[in-house]
Write a structure and sequence with these properties.
Shape: globular
Bound molecules: 2-acetamido-2-deoxy-6-O-sulfo-beta-D-galactopyranose, calcium ion
Distance between the termini: 37 Å
CATH topology of the largest domain: Alkaline Phosphatase, subunit A
Strand content: 15-25%
Radius of gyration: 22 Å
CATH architecture of the largest domain: 3-Layer(aba) Sandwich
Structural class: alpha/beta
Order of helices and strands: HEHEHHEEEEEEEEHEHEHEEHHEEEHEH
Number of helices: 11
Strand order of the largest sheet: 6-5-4-3-11-1-12-13-2-14
């Protein structure tokens, strides 16, 4: 009934009366999952049956991207539809970072809320909370609820950054006021045990950074004290996201809903539930992929049980490409074998080479999408404008500055075109990439730090600021052809400059 009223309300408000649709929407975003990490993209060293099933029932994109090669800027762009480099301080958010998306900003969530949807984010946030800093013992706002979400249940930053607590709507869950939570970047006193002073007691050793406060036998980035009753066990995160999501979906099954399911898997510290530990030969990195795949399966089971699958658009994506050693000695490097986390691409997390942003991208809507494979260029940044089109919502001129409405391409419609260009950025936009058709321009001011560790490709270093690659015969970006194609190089440099200077790319 509620769904009926929401649709009616929305139909009355909409300008495109007959084309609007209000399917449920679930965006499943993995963390640090590479293009080659899933079975349907060629992985054989581990099995991802649930993701493969999603693919078999939907559309798999071979040119699907996230917009940045780290978490915070990709998530910023996913929600706001604007390239993160356009706003200051959108790089990896620290534990006490303020809310990056300001209240009043148009987001996927606010677009869908306006269209009558119930909206929730469950999982990793990493877009800051509070202003000018999170008030861990008070109200944590602004946050998701101030930019269009009705409900949130969050890991506030990352699992390797303090504190390891859940944020439920505006509060830390299960926080005992008699045991307040303190979070800081300096040790509260010289007796605080750290990953350095108590290294021999750790259940997973660090390799770089990650040697401050110890929680659950794992040392982290940053310090915190108190909030003991609120702390989670890393092993339980996947189960928690699923339990909370199932409850929320069930409670909102009678109206259109939007769930942003932001898994912490497979970010470090990779500490999957005990039942997944040892399930692959790849160590905890592989086991975390299996845990993520299980989560996908559980969500799909819930849709089936509630008979919602046919009317639900599911989008599966990742926030950046893969990394092996991201600060802990978890065997990811030693146990890699022949597995190729970035598939055929070079680079990975932190890099503007394809491996940094060309990531798993699948859409499924059984009532609407005909299963297949698409080679069109699509990006997580386009979900905002495309979903506005789907639901018949008109975007304000100043909203979603770089989100392109490519709904038919996302739904895999025959002949539908994706993007003709896409900008890719590293964490803070120092290095940029530009994909235009078959060509890729890379503007490399600094070398991406994890490139060499993920990819086996041998890259020819030209050393210049700009490099040009022709992707159909060089997907691995190993051969800079800028000297052979000076006109193409010039054209792409000026397009890149224009995108940066224009302040927007959505017309
Ligand atoms: C880096 C961390 C890395 C990871 C990353 C954020 C160190 C040495 N490295 O600064 O471990 O946490 O930030 O990852 O501390 S992301 O996927 O959330 O962007
Ligand atoms: Ca990430």
């Amino acid at each position: 009934m509620l769904r009926f009223y929401a649709t009616l309300l929305f139909l009355c408000a909409s300008s495109s009366l007959f084309s609007a649709e209000t399917p449920n929407i679930i965006v499943i975003m993995a963390d640090d999952l590479g293009y080659g990490d899933i079975g349907c993209n060629g992985a054989t060293a581990l099995k991802t049956p649930n993701i493969d099933k999603l693919t078999a029932e939907g559309m798999r994109f071979t040119n699907g991207y996230c917009s940045a090669s780290t978490c915070t800027p990709t998530r910023f762009s996913l929600l706001t539809g604007t390239y993160a480099f356009r706003q200051k301080n959108t790089g990896i958010a620290p534990p006490n970072g303020p809310a990056i998306i300001r209240p009043g900003t148009t987001t996927i969530a606010s677009i869908l809320k306006k269209a009558g949807y119930a909206t929730a984010v469950i999982g990793k946030w990493h877009l800051g909370l509070g202003d000018p800093a999170p008030d861990w013992n008070g109200e944590l706002k602004p946050g998701p609820l101030e930019i269009g979400f009705d409900h949130c249940h969050l890991l506030p930053t990352t699992n390797d950054r303090v504190p390891q607590v859940y944020v439920n709507n505006h509060r830390v869950l299960n926080l005992d006021p008699k045991d307040p939570l303190w979070v800081g970047s300096e040790a509260p006193d010289e007796n605080t045990p750290t990953g350095i002073t108590h290294r021999s007691t750790l259940k997973m050793d660090w390799s770089h950074g990650h040697n401050q406060t110890i929680h659950n036998g794992i040392s982290r980035i940053g310090f915190y004290t108190g909030g003991m009753a609120a702390r989670f066990r890393d092993e339980d995160l996947g189960d928690e996201w699923i339990k909370r999501s199932n409850t929320w979906i069930e409670a909102h099954k009678d109206q259109p809903f939007f769930l942003y399911f932001a898994s912490h898997d497979i970010h470090v510290p990779r500490m999957p539930h005990e039942r997944f530990q040892g399930s692959t030969t790849l160590g905890f990195r592989g086991d975390s992929i299996v845990e993520f795949d299980w989560c996908v399966g559980e969500l799909m089971k819930t849709l089936d049980r509630l008979k919602l699958a046919e009317n639900t658009l599911v989008v599966l994506c990742s926030d950046n490409g893969p990394v092996l050693d991201d600060g802990y000695q978890d065997g990811a490097v030693e146990k890699l074998g022949t597995h190729e986390p970035a598939g055929p691409f070079s680079g990975g997390k932190y890099s503007v080479l394809e491996g940094g942003t060309r990531t798993p991208f699948i859409t499924r809507w059984t009532g609407r999408i005909k299963p297949g494979v698409s080679n069109e260029v699509v990006c997580t940044i386009d979900l905002a404008a495309s979903i506005a089109t789907l639901t018949g919502t008109t975007l304000a001129q100043e909203a979603c500055l770089d989100s392109l409405s490519i709904l038919p391409a996302l739904l895999g419609e025959a002949g539908a075109k994706g993007r003709d260009h896409l900008l890719q950025q590293d964490n803070n936009g120092t290095n940029l990439g530009l994909r235009m058709g078959d060509w890729k321009l890379v503007r490399m001011k600094t070398k991406g730090k994890s490139e060499a560790k993920v990819s086996r490709k041998v890259r020819q270093e030209s050393g210049g600021l700009h490099r040009l690659y022709h992707l159909p015969d060089d997907a691995g970006e190993t051969k800079d052809v800028s000297a052979e194609h000076p006109e193409r190089l010039k054209e792409m440099i000026s397009k890149l400059d224009e995108i940066v200077a224009a302040g927007r790319t959505r017309i």
